């Protein structure tokens, strides 16, 4: 590639980083600017036909609409719970289990997020967990940052194993069930040593950046509990991956972890004597909450939690291919084949999207919580009012990504932009590929907004480099899988969606600055473990 072509291929990454992170522009301004620059360079330098570029943008618009539907459903359910009083009951229940903000971070930000990722994936965990943390008293910025960092390790087996069973399987040559199982076990084996530290990292971020005292010490005081919280997920997940395959490690690992860590929290095992709060004011508010009686007009805790339980159950049932529900929900599909006469197609299965399940559960919540119809009307108005900034950001960022990915059709004789970048990296960095492999996976997730698509896009490429560099193919593909997980922390689509749910649109650059270092830790630590033990 020429230097200008190299710059063009990097532009979607560079423009997002500079505009969002360095210049701190809101995504509503940064993403349209990034789209404009990337589109012009794709036409001029990459020589994409205008029809191909417009088709890619239209494909991206369809994908963006599906993400917006998920965001709307998550906000609607949250607002219905808020108006029904259920959210206050949930807050009270967590305060009674443990008022300690570090413990709540591990239970909700790490284990509940991991369960949601295993059940649904595709941005759902942060969209549900972030507002729940805000309801407990976390700042919106802290809630989004923690949810995004936590939604990483479990992504390997997210959406009932989709990143492995679809992403790796369709992306690599000669995929077999035994080969996929070996890749999955390699990834989760590394995660036992790497991702088990993520709950401690969550607590370090929490106490150092989002508390009044700005100290690392409170997190370190909880280190035994936090590390056990990490192992409580990764070790059972490894066992499930070994015994059952890649469909259920995140779901079952998170359930085991929740049961264990909730028990330790309830009986105050491995916890410091005094709970930790963000500030003195936060302590007073939490203590007042614990004293409240008859919160939410006497609603029992099980009834308050039932909407989230229903969401989790429906997500699992609708994602298991052996059950008929998946087929029923996928029966209605809107297809747009050969957009503008190109090889690009788009499809949408509205009933299968998590957003539809959220809306269904929001309707059922009216009956469960004995709320009037006016509660739904108010929740709907509040939810629609929150979608504006997210709509602008997503309708620009996703089309930009699709231009990047669909750029293989051009008159310059070049491959698609991500493959050109990866080939240059392989040419110069093959000797250091165990360090580079997870970063390639992270780049794919950062741009595509999906670990599954990152794996699908780069698995074959990683195979080729592994063969040429004389590296174990299973190990390199395992690092691709882990890198795709890490990229989930900083991917623009997830950041925009999570920020919009907690009314934080415009702070996307701030969010990425907090999640960037944990993302790099995940990638580099995985490489180090691979070098030392494999």
UniProtKB/TrEMBL annotation:
Q: Where does the record place a coiled coil?
A: none
Q: Does the keyword Manganese apply?
A: no
Checking Pfam families in the record gives: Lactate_perm
Q: Which domain of life is it from?
A: Bacteria
Signal peptide positions (record)? none
Membrane spanning residue stretches: 6-23, 30-47, 53-81, 102-122, 128-148, 155-172, 184-210, 222-244, 250-269, 305-324, 344-367, 432-453, 474-499, 511-533
Membrane topology term reads:
Multi-pass membrane protein
Indicate whether S-adenosyl-L-methionine appears among the record's keywords. no
Protein name according to UniProt: L-lactate permease
Q: Which organism is it from?
A: Alkalimonas collagenimarina
Q: From which lineage does this chain's organism come?
A: Bacteria, Pseudomonadati, Pseudomonadota, Gammaproteobacteria, Alkalimonas
């Amino acid at each position: 590639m020429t230097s200008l072509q190299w710059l063009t291929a990097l532009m979607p990454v560079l423009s997002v980083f500079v505009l969002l992170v360095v210049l701190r522009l809101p995504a509503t301004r940064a993403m349209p600017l990034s789209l404009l620059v990337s589109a012009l360079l794709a036409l001029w330098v990459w020589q994409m036909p205008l029809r191909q570029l417009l088709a890619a943008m239209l494909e991206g618009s369809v994908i963006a609409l599906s993400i917006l539907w998920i965001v709307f459903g998550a906000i609607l359910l949250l607002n219905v719970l808020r108006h029904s009083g259920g959210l206050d009951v949930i807050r009270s229940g967590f305060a009674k289990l443990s008022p300690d903000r570090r413990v709540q971070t591990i239970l909700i930000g790490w284990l509940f997020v991991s369960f949601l990722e295993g059940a649904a994936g595709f941005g759902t965990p942060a969209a549900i967990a972030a507002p729940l943390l805000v309801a407990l008293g976390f700042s919106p910025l802290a809630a989004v940052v923690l949810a995004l960092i936590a939604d990483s390790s479990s992504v390997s087996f997210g959406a009932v194993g989709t990143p492995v069973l679809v992403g790796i399987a369709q992306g690599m040559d000669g995929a077999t069930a035994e080969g996929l199982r070996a890749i999955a076990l390699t990834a989760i084996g590394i995660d036992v040593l790497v991702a088990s530290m993520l709950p401690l990292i969550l607590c370090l971020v929490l106490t150092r950046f989002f508390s009044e005292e700005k100290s690392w010490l409170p997190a370190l005081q909880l280190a035994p509990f936090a590390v056990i919280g990490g192992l409580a997920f990764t070790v059972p997940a490894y066992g499930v991956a070994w015994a059952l395959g890649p469909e259920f490690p995140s779901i079952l690992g998170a359930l085991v972890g929740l049961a264990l860590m909730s028990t330790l929290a309830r009986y105050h095992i491995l916890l410091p004597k005094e709970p930790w709060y963000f500030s003195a004011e936060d302590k007073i508010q939490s203590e007042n909450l614990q004293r409240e009686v008859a919160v939410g007009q006497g609603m029992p805790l099980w009834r308050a939690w039932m909407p989230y339980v229903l969401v989790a159950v429906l997500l699992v049932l609708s994602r298991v291919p052996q059950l008929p529900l998946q087929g029923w929900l996928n029966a209605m599909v809107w297809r747009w084949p050969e957009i503008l006469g190109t090889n690009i197609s788009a499809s949408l299965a509205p009933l299968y999207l998590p957003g539809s399940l959220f809306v269904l559960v929001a309707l059922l919540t009216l009956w469960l919580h004995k709320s009037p119809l006016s509660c739904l009307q108010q929740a709907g108005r509040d939810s629609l009012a929150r979608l504006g900034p997210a709509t602008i950001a997503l309708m620009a960022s996703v089309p930009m990504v699709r231009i990047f990915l669909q750029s293989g059709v051009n008159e310059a004789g070049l491959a698609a932009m991500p493959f050109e970048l990866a080939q240059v990296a392989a040419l110069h960095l093959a000797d250091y590929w165990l360090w580079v492999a997870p970063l390639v996976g992270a780049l794919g997730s950062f741009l595509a907004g999906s670990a599954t698509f990152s794996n699908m896009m780069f698995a074959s490429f990683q195979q080729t480099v592994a063969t040429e560099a004389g590296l174990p193919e299973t190990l390199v593909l395992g690092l691709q899988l882990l890198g795709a997980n890490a990229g989930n922390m900083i991917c623009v689509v997830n950041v925009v969606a999570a920020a919009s749910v907690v009314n934080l649109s415009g702070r996307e650059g701030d969010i990425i600055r907090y999640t960037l270092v944990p993302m790099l830790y995940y990638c580099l630590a995985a490489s180090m473990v691979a070098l030392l033990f494999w």
